[in-house]
Amino acid sequence: xxxxxxxxxxxxxxDERPREKLFRNGAEQLSNAELLAxxxxxxxxxxxxxDLARNILQSLGGxxxxxxxxxxxxxxxxxxxxxxxxxxxxxxxxxKRILQEPKRTLGEVYSAQQVFSYLLPRMRDLKRERFVAIxxxxxxxxxxxxxxxxxxxxxxxxxxxxxxxxxxxxxxAAVVFAHNxxxxxxxxxxxxxxxxxxxxxxxxxxxxxxxxxxxxxENAYFSFAEExxxxxxxxxxxxxxxxx
Length: 244
What we know:
Blueprint: H1 18-25, H2 32-40, H3 49-60, H4 64-68, H5 71-74, H6 82-100, H7 112-123, E1 130-136, E2 142-150, H8 160-169, E3 174-180, H9 190-206, E4 209-216, E5 221-223, H10 229-242
Parallel strand pairs: 3-4
Antiparallel strand pairs: 1-2, 1-3, 4-5
Helix pairs in contact: 2-3, 8-9, 9-10
C-alpha cells in the first residue's frame, strides 16, 4: 500500500495546489516557490514540494543561484535528486532560449490590398468558403494566420470570443478577418455584415482591434474597412457603452 504523507500537495484543497492555480490563474500569479514546486513534483518526508522549494530558495539565496550553481552542487541539497536538478536546469535553459529567440513574423500587411495579395493565391480557387484570422502586432507584422471555419459561413461557425482569445494569447495588437466567396462575387451577404459587426463588438470588449474583414472573390475583394463599415460598427458599440 502506497504511503501518503499528510503534508503532500495531493492532500491540499484543490484551489491551493500549484498546478491547479497555474491553470486557473496563469503562471504569473504563482510565487517562486510554487513554480519551483511544480518542477520538483514531490517533496520529502515532512515537507510538501512547496515547503521544499521554499527551503531550497532560502538556502540558495534566491532564484538566480539555481542557474549559477553547478548541477553536482545542487544535487547535494536535501530533496534535490539528479533528476530534479536536470528538470530545473532544463527549465532555466528553455527560459534563456525564449528570451534569445527573435519573434517570428510571416510578413507585413498595411492595407486591404496587401491582405488581398497575401491571401489570393491560396483562397481564390477554393470550392468551399474558408474564414481566416490574421493576427498582427503593433507594426502590422503578421504573427499568425488561423483558419477559423470552413464551409458555409454562419454565426454558428464563428466564435468571436474564442478567435479573439487566441489573439490575446499570442500577444497580437490587432486582427484582420477574411473569407472567400467561391462564386467569385464579393458582394457581402447580410450574414457577412452581421458576423463582421459581432467581431468588431467582441474586439472592443476584449481590447483587440479589428482592422478589417475582407471578402475575396475572383481577382477582386470587398473591404469592410475601406467601405467605412468597421469604423461605423466601432462607433456604435462605443456610443452604446458610453450610455451604460
